[in-house]
Design a protein that fits this description.
alpha/beta, 6-stranded mixed β-sheet, two-stranded antiparallel sheet, 10 helices, 8 strands
Length: 350
């Protein structure tokens, strides 16, 4: 494949977005098995859930420690004080002595309550650790280590939360990868390619490196789908992607822009090097037909190339490369057109 150079007015052409749509119904919490399981447990009416619901109607202190302390006092110390008061009122004694005995009993009850509340506070402080760890995970994406040396309800809670966070992190990473990857070919999708292009332009401007943006389109791909079916068309797309990936360097990347259109970025590559790489890829696609259940299918590529001038942003650079691609397609199959603001058109057909 030989190269053509075009000096032309840039035309803005937007390709179809291949970003897979996300159905809100599929991600609804009502379809989440864990949420459904939680609903079932609540509907069965466990004793703990019923008790928590019951005390929610009582005007208790706001803090969990205050609730536990008040319940201990009501359930443990208040009956003792009531019994002491009964003994004092049921036996005739000196009123002053009765008051003194009741005061001492009340003081010891309050002292015992205070002594009980302090270790409770220490035990419940672990819940604050869990809360802070969750905040740290949300804000800093740091995986918390919550397990303790005690095997009790709180330990099980901490281990369960830590496991759920690790599981959630795995799902998040999987979703992030899926949102950035083309589901058919495994390369970057349009959303990822747009973001990567902006990052690489900024990196090139900082480092002074040259970059080439290349748009590749499979010639008459629609005819392949119409004649052989979309399953064969998918095989052809994967075949072309494998050839392109085999012809680029480690620092370069390939993205599917939409349908049969791909975007290739060559980092730290001048015009001469980019032309050689693209011509080698084009020749390989022509010489290596795709092996499909319907037989061998030969293909070719139309290519538009634009060398970054050090100033253009992502949209402007893409428009120039797309303009070169449009001319390549008008000139016929298997054409490479290089965009330039200064050089005239070279129209050698291959």
């Amino acid at each position: 494949m030989k190269t053509k150079v075009v000096s032309s007015v840039v035309k803005s052409v937007s390709g179809p977005d291949t970003q897979p749509s996300v159905q809100s119904k599929e991600l609804s919490t009502y379809n989440n098995p864990e949420i459904e399981e939680l609903k079932i447990v609540r509907n069965k009416g466990s004793a703990a859930y019923k008790f928590h619901t019951l005390i929610s109607y009582i005007p208790l202190p706001k803090s969990y420690l205050g609730k536990i302390t008040l319940l201990i006092f009501l359930a443990g110390y208040l009956p003792i004080l009531a019994f002491v008061l009964y003994l004092l009122t049921s036996h005739p004694n000196d009123p002053a002595s009765k008051l003194q005995i009741f005061g001492i009993s009340l003081a010891f009850a309050l002292l015992g309550l205070a002594v009980t509340a302090y270790p409770l506070k220490l035990l419940l402080s672990s819940l604050l650790v869990v809360s802070r760890a969750l905040d740290q995970y949300i804000n800093d994406k740091k995986i918390p280590t919550l397990s303790t040396s005690q095997i009790d309800e709180l330990e099980r809670l901490m281990l369960d939360i830590e496991f759920k966070i690790l599981d959630l992190q795995g799902h998040i990473r999987s979703l992030e990868k899926r949102s950035m990857t083309d589901y058919l070919t495994g390369i970057q999708n349009r959303y990822s390619a747009e973001r990567q292009l902006k990052e690489d332009i900024a990196r090139a401007q900082r480092s002074g490196k040259e970059i080439s943006l290349i748009i590749l389109d499979i010639d008459e791909f629609k005819l392949i789908n119409d004649r052989y079916g979309h399953d064969v068309g998918d095989i052809c797309l994967k075949h072309v992607v494998e050839i392109i990936q085999g012809g680029i360097r480690k620092g370069d990347w390939l993205g599917r822009w939409g349908g049969d259109e791909f975007v290739l970025l060559l980092f730290d590559s001048d015009e001469k090097s980019s032309r050689k790489i693209v011509e080698r890829i084009g020749d390989a696609v022509k010489e290596q037909p795709a092996l499909t259940p319907k037989g061998e299918i030969s293909m070719s590529l139309s290519v538009g190339i634009c060398q970054h001038n050090g100033k253009d942003q992502a949209e402007e650079l893409f428009k120039k490369a797309d303009c070169a691609l449009l001319l390549a397609k008008r000139l016929g199959k298997s054409q490479i057109v290089y965009y330039s603001n200064t050089l005239p058109i070279s129209a050698t057909h291959t």
